[in-house]
Design a protein that fits this description.
It is a single chain. The protein is flat. A hairpin with a 2-residue loop joins strand 22 and strand 23. Among the domains are: about 90 residues, 3-Layer(aba) Sandwich (Udp-n-acetylmuramoylalanyl-d-glutamate--2,6- Diaminopimelate Ligase, Chain: A, domain 1); about 140 residues, 3 Solenoid (UDP N-Acetylglucosamine Acyltransferase, domain 1). The chain is α/β, with parallel strands linked by helices. Strands 8-11-14-17-20-25-28-31-34-37-39 form an 11-stranded parallel sheet, with no helix packed on it. It is built from 4 helices and 39 strands.
Length: about 350
């Protein structure tokens, strides 16, 4: 039977991803969508019980649900795939419908490649790329237009660089690394020494090492180390517009949301989650499995796993101004309460 490109039988998807199927296994899936936006041929998902009511009106041909959500659903109307983690299963299936960004093997005639650069077979190097001396591009790597690979860099096998990505110097990418447009890796760290009345730049002699299967968002910057390398271990995921300073080490499987900043020589553990616009000052240690909520400022090391927050939630401006005026009295109030608690008993 002929099917359109990117079409899959639901029974095949269930077998491929180890899911339980309730309904017609011959249902054809041609795309993925939200419950509210799905149409015939689309696969939706229910990962949050707040959207359960949308099951009654969705036009999706099939929906991925958790086993706990199956009860009460009209299975005769909508075909179900039952998953332990619906959103994870949805992500895996959605990848089958993603646009192919692998690029066609070959080197664009406008690319400028140094004679001693090592370029493997089967790479794709786009228009106006520059690859400098001593660098290596491994098999299956894709460089989008206007990428610059500086001296002594490695682009690992099957890695993909979007347009205008810059690896400045001494950057090592592992395998299957995805870097989105505009990211800069290997620029100088902010190293300065103050000599009486002026600054002296501290030479940045280290590099950047990125582990396998990492993703780095658009316009994110990762500085090279002063002496040792700045390091992202495997499967680290960085959102857009993040600043990683020199000599930072980020443990495997950690994810960091947009506009966060980590100052120099801080070590972040494995499986951490750092919220958007969070800031971490330098020379700290963050334990494994720490969650830092959005807009938090971390000023001391965190030695135990858990969730940590700082900052003041938004409120009406008049209340904020009133409370801000009271902040300066908090220490005095605390001392007064302490003196009262420690005073003589009248019992």
């Amino acid at each position: 039977m002929n099917r359109p490109a990117h079409a899959h039988r639901l029974g095949d998807l269930a077998e491929r991803f180890g899911l339980k199927l309730l309904g017609d296994r011959d249902t054809t899936i041609r795309g993925v969508a939200t419950l509210a936006g799905a149409g015939t041929g689309d696969l939706g998902f229910l990962a949050n019980s707040r959207y359960r009511a949308q099951l009654a009106t969705t036009q999706a041909s099939a929906v991925i649900v958790a086993s706990a959500d199956v009860a009460g659903i009209e299975t005769g109307r909508t075909v179900l795939l039952v998953a332990e983690q619906p959103y994870v299963s949805f992500a895996r299936i959605a990848a089958l419908f993603a646009d192919d960004a692998a690029g066609s093997p070959g080197i664009h005639p406008s690319a400028v490649i140094c004679a001693d650069a090592d370029i493997a077979e089967g790479v794709s190097i786009g228009p106006f790329c520059v690859i400098e001396s001593g660098s290596r591009v491994e098999a299956g790597a894709v460089l989008g237009p206007h990428c610059t690979i500086g001296a002594d860099c490695v682009v690992g096998a099957q890695s993909r660089l979007g347009a205008n990505v810059t690896l400045v110097r001494r950057v090592r990418l592992g395998q299957r690394v995805l870097i989105h447009s505009g990211a800069v890796l290997g620029a100088d760290g902010f190293g300065l020494a103050f000599d009486r009345d002026h600054w002296i730049k501290v030479p940045q002699l280290g590099g950047v090492r990125i582990g396998d299967d990492c993703e780095i968002g658009a316009n994110t910057t990762i500085d090279r180390g002063a002496l040792e390398d700045t390091v992202l271990e495997e499967d680290v995921r960085l959102d857009n517009q993040i600043q990683i300073a020199h000599n930072v080490v980020i443990g495997a499987h950690t994810a960091i949301a947009g506009c966060a900043a980590i100052a120099g020589s801080t070590r972040v553990g494995r499986y951490c989650l750092i919220g958007g616009a969070a800031g971490i000052i330098g020379h700290l240690t963050i334990a494994d499995r720490v969650t830092i909520t959005a807009m938090s400022l971390v000023t001391h090391s965190i030695r135990a796993a858990g969730e940590y927050s700082s900052g003041t939630p938004i409120q009406e401006s008049r209340l904020w101004r009133r409370n801000a005026a009271r902040f300066k009295h908090l220490d005095k109030l605390a001392r007064q309460l302490a003196d009262k608690d420690n005073g003589p008993s009248h019992e």
